[in-house]
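Exercise: predict the fold of this chain.
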Amino acid sequence: MGILFENSGVIDPRAITTFGVNSKETARAIGFFGTGLKYAISIILREGCSITVYSGKNKLEFGKLQEKIRVDTFDLITMNGEPLGFTTEVGKTWDLWQAFRELYCNCIDEGGTVSEIPSGEKVEGEEGKTKIVVEGDLFRDVYQNRSEIILESKPLEIGEECDIHPGPSKYLYYRGVRAYDLQKPSIFTYNIKKTLNLTEDRTIKWHFEAEDAIAQSVASSKSDSIIKEILTAKDSSYEKGLSFSYTNPGEVFLEVVRSLSKSFSRRLNVSALEVCRHYFMNSLPEEETSIKLDRVDEARLKKAVDFCEKIGFQVRNHPIIVTDWLGEGVLGLAHNGKIYLSQRVFMMGTKMLAGTLIEEYIHLKHNLGDCERDMQNFLVDTVVSLGEKVLGEPL
């Protein structure tokens, strides 16, 4: 039994024998280099399988002819017994599954079908059609395991640039075809639909282009369960390293991130929290007040504020709001003239509370950012100035 690739339209034999010839009517065709079909023929013959192409009723049979060139012997590819200008060395790094993928993509690009030929059935050429028949046990095995090459499942979520499919995967797919091997398995399967740059063997050339499409599809998702699973993925999964820096978060995404940050989820994707924090802060009502503190925390806050002002940091000049959702590891935040404090900082002692107040005050007062050299210089200068006051004389 063989595998039949069939589509309307008649392939020009020159497209088979000439490198760099690529002419397809479909604007969104997957292939465009004009080399894949030659590679596929070479690999199929190299692996001991056979391939026949019907260009309309014209039958083109491919074979091998050994020839010695200088000191080495090569298998020249032949078409109807006539040697062509390439050998079975073409596509030397390709595997048989890539030959299947090539024929499949060419067929789908032309709106065709792929099927297994029933036992005993003979394929004949037909006017107005192209048919490619590949025979061989190894190739049939690839076809029967095509689910790792061709994405056939229905998506859980349809995105503008990327669809999210059920189940884990070791690959990324591009327009339904395997196109990138992942270093870590993903918990969902992703099919990129936006136009990407590909290498000649149909591999995604720049991974960041695919990641941006995936991240945006997650950020735009309407499924809170999908978003939550992705944002709390384990370190061993592909999703753990997803960056959401260039996404435009949707309402469901924002709500899931807000909920996870309030629960202090240790596995919450840090990039997702960072990109959402700006939206959170800008959505807070102007009249928002601090959550109610107990007697102990009220005393601790007053003591810390008094200390800050005694050493020259007038933190009371800014509204101080205590909130419960800044997220893991975030003790304070300066935004729109206000100082936001995490509930957690109160558990870390008055000294940490005072330090957080001072840091956020500096951000607001002097417009200095975290991890900036200007911020570092300001802090060093402040320490020296305080030392002068303690000693009672200038340096």
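Check your answer against the key: DSSP finds twelve helices and 14 strands in the chain.
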